[in-house]
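Q: Second attempt. The first request was missing the SMILES, so the protein and zinc ion are both included now.
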Amino acid sequence: MKDRIIRATALNNTVRVSSVITTGVVEEARQRHNLSPLACAALGRIMTANLLMTWGLKGEGSLSIRFLGDGPIGGAISQAFSDYTVRGYVGNPYVDLPLTEEGKLNVGKAIGSGQLNIMKDLGLKEPYSGTTDIVSGEIGEDIAQYLLDSEQTPSLVALGVLVDIDYKVIASGGVIIQALPGAPDDVLDLIEEKVILGKGVSILINNGLDARGLMEEYLQGIDFKVLEEHDVKFDCKCSKERFKNGLYSLGTEELTSILESDGQCETRCHFCNEVHTFSQDELREIIESRNNN
Ligand SMILES: [Zn+2]
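A: Got both inputs this time. The predicted holo structure:
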């Protein structure tokens, strides 16, 4: 199934829906960071929610989600952009815990309690930032609480990552349904009732539903109007140039000491885990350009 996002409205624009397939996105994150199944489920759900929440972002805009909990995953961070790309990482990619009583990966315990911070950067001077307490650490519930507290929008958030026994991601995706002002009072309750009784989102995707099929399944016969549809992918905005600026800001003394002790310097991007290497000559060049300024 292709990684794709769909956004739609229903019931005279009083309900807003996004659904997304992220199987490839999350598998790429798993491979890049060597994620354990538990870390993969946690980060996968966060990255999926992140893509779903970029509604309305334009130009240079981005949305960051940070789960800053006290659990053994050591924090989980994701950032999605207006160009339908997302990137993310966790503090401890190898985190492992016993399964829950229902036999599920214990994402809530891995995240722990603490704060959920969401920052919307619209390319203006000040990014908008909101923080709420983590409710369960299961991600979907936390995001729904955030949307209610910070944006006063009742939302149903369904997220799921299905990991195979060989740790490969076989199905991942999610749906967010939001009741805007004027929506029928019981619309989310009705949907939620059915969702709780129904199959999990990752099972539905594994059974072959695409983003549109997922939306149909969750809306249960409510007509919807598709506003946009787009491929999504894992992509990092880092470049050697940006790391060069970071090295530049270290100062001549520090740079000289790196040059003398190691000769070269390796910088690793947290988000994509790629290494950018600076040779002796490149380091000398940075020191020289500092000295000439
Ligand atoms: Zn990167």
